[in-house]
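To assess whether the prediction recovers the assembly geometry, we first specified each molecular entity separately, as shown.
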Amino acid sequence: MALVPEVAKKLIGAGWEICLQAGAGTEAAFPDAAFADAGATVAPDAASAVSGAGLVVKVNPPSAQESAALPQGAAVLSFFGVAQSEDALRALAGRGATVFSFDLLPRISRAQSMDALSSQATVSGYRAGLAAADHLAKFFPMFMTAAGTVPPAKVLVMGVGVAGLQSIATARRLGAVVKAYDVRAAAKEEAESLGATFLDTGVSAEGIGGYARELTPEELDRQRAALAEEVGRSDVVITTAAVPGRKAPVLLTAAMVEGMAPGAVVVDMAADQGGNCELTKVGEVVEHEGVHVVGMANPPSGMPTHASFLFARNVANVLALMGPAGTLAPDWDDEIVAGMCVLRDGKPMAPAAVEVLGGGAARIGGGEP
Amino acid sequence: MALVPEVAKKLIGAGWEICLQAGAGTEAAFPDAAFADAGATVAPDAASAVSGAGLVVKVNPPSAQESAALPQGAAVLSFFGVAQSEDALRALAGRGATVFSFDLLPRISRAQSMDALSSQATVSGYRAGLAAADHLAKFFPMFMTAAGTVPPAKVLVMGVGVAGLQSIATARRLGAVVKAYDVRAAAKEEAESLGATFLDTGVSAEGIGGYARELTPEELDRQRAALAEEVGRSDVVITTAAVPGRKAPVLLTAAMVEGMAPGAVVVDMAADQGGNCELTKVGEVVEHEGVHVVGMANPPSGMPTHASFLFARNVANVLALMGPAGTLAPDWDDEIVAGMCVLRDGKPMAPAAVEVLGGGAARIGGGEP
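The predicted structure of the complete assembly is given in tokenized form:
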């Protein structure tokens, strides 16, 4: 859910009018009445909710059908991966829409409070740590009981971005012994600060903007060989390696999973992007030679109250860049505004949008490219 | 699973012969081959596994049908609640069986290493803490992110026995703020030692042998009124109040659950005994006015590897009282042996067994009654 009553109330107080699709917050435990109490209007369906709207705020991109039904010239703020939403992009261009995507938020410190990728990755990482503990047939913590001592679980986290760090933190909270691996050597210090030991496989793939670059086939082979041994020693492997807008890299082959002991668990947070494990099926728990492979589908949706709360705060912070509250007059010289822009009045601004829609439109406004 | 390969190997080394029903350990991630490697025989089915056995070790009581198929004069070691297994008891008496039940283990310090109720409650309490975190639509830990701060979850644990203490420890590990409640005032210190705050409702029901006695209706009313307010403030309520061999007391009425916020969670560990919450359905997650009520069925079975490991250690420690390894010559003067005995050579020994089977048999041997 893209807004929560507490944030809606602040936005309304600042001068925005908010109209909500009935029932939109129910799954996240925010009843319509709470939004109404906050001063929002509740519309019976999506069509009447967007009718007359200047700005539509969603978590996921609108579908092509939803896009075609938007008011002429409306703006949209959501996650919006162009590659996955080409039809919607064309429909939005046809409506002369302006589209801002959280996927394109510049990774600068001023934008941190708007970083919905990070806030949702925080939720996902925590959920993955819990899922691992829930599926493992052993304790995470060491237990010394009168009947005997059980050792702590051995957890390997592959991919130490925001999500991986939260998985490390959650597994450590539960008492597991955690190893961490990332192709970016810079991840070592962060992983260690949370109590994990960092694996060195001799392959580094430090990328641009804090994300990992894709490895070459040779590098992947070396990485896999070094990792296979560690995977085989682990009770749990959590994989979090996603490259935005692309298919997730395969880090765990079937053979590596077969090297794990019966009862071991793989939690694949990149399942929605095709999975970091060859055996992953999105939204399912696959058993393979006694190992359970958990393909987490849309992990933040499993914890909707706080996922929505953080997303709504990100939204409110972006709205503060949109001009005086209640109007839509973005400062196009602001590198965050310009950077997030996919479409402006129906014209493609982001390179991926230009690729789909054609036309020679260039990025408008100042700031770094 | 009542035995694990590691413990089986030790028992075989000491002189026991062990025959395993094929596949019995598969769910707990102990393949038949691991038992075979430990020196055990693997029989294709239950009938051939028990054929010729002097002692049958199980987690749950044998069914009436299984009991009738045991060798004449065999012994059984398992959980064995007489009230739930009257038909099996009659069948076992008919076979002249000797039955030892973990439910009847004297609560003395020498018996701690044999205390399967405690070892399984440890697993259950940990599982309940995890289940609560998994079902709550919020974080357990406090999070301070760029998008805003989320407060820690408020968890109330009702019933501070072994299971309740593990639930407290698990919720605390995950960063929740935990309150604990028990009718036994003695539980206060233990709960506080794990970082929980203890609730005082002004009602105490300190019972015999460390268990709670049943409260009077008046006491229950006072307790409920004082608790209702705290329940309404909680994100999570975990209930663990079970009285061995009886229906679990109702601690949470539907009205109390209705006083909780949408998105709150109840985890009922006493679901198998009828539940501490009026709304509980065993093995199901019931949604009631936005609150999820998780009726945990056989909680240790969700973590079979370590649950089995601890149980097997309990079994091995009891077997040490059964005379020289490989023989069945219990020391009937040992209060643990005598205390655990339900049937001896088909004759009822425990009061509950006497009640079912009749006859004037008295408890044999020394030790405290």
